[in-house]
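I hope you will forgive my troubling you with a question about protein structure. The record follows directly beneath this note:
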Amino acid sequence: MPTDLTIHHQAAGYPVNGKKLKKLSNWLLDQCRVKDYNVSLLLIDDQEITRLNSHYRNNCKPTNVLSFPFAEGADESLATLPVKELGDIIISVETALKESIKYNQTLHERMSWLVIHGMLHLLGYDHERSESDERKMFNKENELLNKLNNYRRTGMTKLAINVDHVATIRQARGIDEPDPVSAASICELAGAAGIVIHLREDRRHIQDRDVYLLRQTIKTKLNLEMGANKDIIKIALEVKPDMITLVPEKRQELTTEGGLDVFSQQKKIGKVIDKMTAASIPVSIFADPDPKQLAAAKEVGATFVELHTGRYCDVIGEGNRDHEFQLLQEAAEAASQMGLRVCAGHGLNYQNTAPIAALDTIEELSIGHAIIARAVFTGLDQAVKEMLAIVRQANCTI
């Protein structure tokens, strides 16, 4: 990771959340357009920072933060080394805690400002150089703080609930209940950011009636999963969901088995996307974490990709799962850099969702079967809230 965090001191009763600080530091590197650089973040006590302040700044007292740019005072030969290092940020947790009390902040809020302040020093800003430099640094700090506050409000990974299997239970008896429309309302009230349904060609669960009623009743966002089928394309254009997700579809499969092969069907898929774009319906492609497929999705005009997490969820063995996770992580980053918005789903449950939710580039998870299955024992409202808690904890807002 670009940020190397070392904690040598924790304030009693005020634990520092190292994961959140690392995420903040990496976010700052990205915002300052130096995300390919490394930075070292060291948390110490007043005694140790006093020693450093005395030795390097000739000031024998504790301070809140010290910054040591990598190139400061270095031999010119270092410029030829194949490394990208910004330098070191050193923070006294004791002083930060005192300042947080003084300014009526949480410790993490104060630490966040100190990381921003220290990072700007590494980038060449210096409030002690002149009044104009002080204003320049002050303005940049405020700019980053405003972005950070906005990110904290909007950057949380969202959870969309697939209610297909409520309809599966209904269709098993061929009656009117349970109703996926009612289920969608419960999910929204429990905190879901959207509802997902898959209108299959064989109508094995969701029916046309469900699609039209859900469009009228959903208050958040309706994501219609569909194959590139002529009749279903017509329904989508009539209903106008908030987005569609194009998926592969086989009559004999129990559930969607893999990502859409966009690369070999670019002309066909491109025509569907053109129709949806003309109707102002954003399109997502359900894709395997394959760079070739992601590039093809971008080429045909998709707005989103939903990464297929099935292999990650189903693989046996910790090493194999780590490998699949790495593929998803790299694919999410690559898709984001292409300008695609990134979602993920398929097979996610209460045990394996957290690592995926923690990926910064993924903005929404689509989860269905695990939540509906858990609802049998806990109720749908509770099942949604329990999954939301996992997503929010894993997302760990900076």
